[in-house]
Amino acid sequence: RTYYSKVLLANGTEVKVGTAVKLLAPDGEPSFLGKVQCLWGSSKDHFKMMRCKWFYRPEEAPGYKGTVHAREVFISEHQDEQYLTTIEKPCTIMHDSEIPGEIREDFLKHPDNFFYRMKYLPDRNNFVVLKEPVAIDPVTAAKDRPSSASRGKKKSAASSKVSEKRGSDTPTGKVAAESTTKRPLEVKEEDAAPKTKKIKSETSEKVAESEKSDKKEKSEEAETAAAAAAA
């Protein structure tokens, strides 16, 4: 794996370690919310990946009985690996204490701004009040190996959504990435295997049809020649 401190998505949007992002969700549901913990490229299949920490909306955490603001979410320890193509766009997620009082009202009016003041523990259906922001250490995050222990509906839904987009031949474009070793580099995110197989299959079919047509023409020519000789 090659780890990066930041990447440039196909639409020109820059995403760094620590960036809060909106991710693809099933049709009819609000975007999933996460914060990028690390970014890397796989040398095996060339996919560009990230590890993100999930935030839960109040409707995703039914155990909470208190009153919440429309822009309030709950941070969690739930993390998953995701393709960079699951990102819809960056957003802002801050701890309640980080929002200056003079801009608080305007900040909370924006649909891409959120805040948290509690941690949600899904396994225990419990909530912990946080007096300070949860920090991300970029160096540690870049070196950590993503854990495969935690897998939830957010991961499967977001990944499935991307698979649907790739299956419909949506181009993924290029992702420019800067390595954590500070060596800028542009890399191309290859299309998913289903699309590649489809292209190969279509090419093979065209070749087969061409060969079949050639054989048919040669057979007809041979029959014509034989008939002429017999006459």
UniProtKB/TrEMBL annotation:
One of its GO terms (molecular function) is chromatin binding. GO terms for biological process: negative regulation of gene expression via chromosomal CpG island methylation. Residues 180-221 have a biased composition (Basic and acidic residues). Residues 140-231 are annotated as: Disordered. Residues 13-131 form the BAH domain. This is BAH domain-containing protein. The lineage of its organism: Eukaryota, Cryptophyceae, Pyrenomonadales, Geminigeraceae, Guillardia.
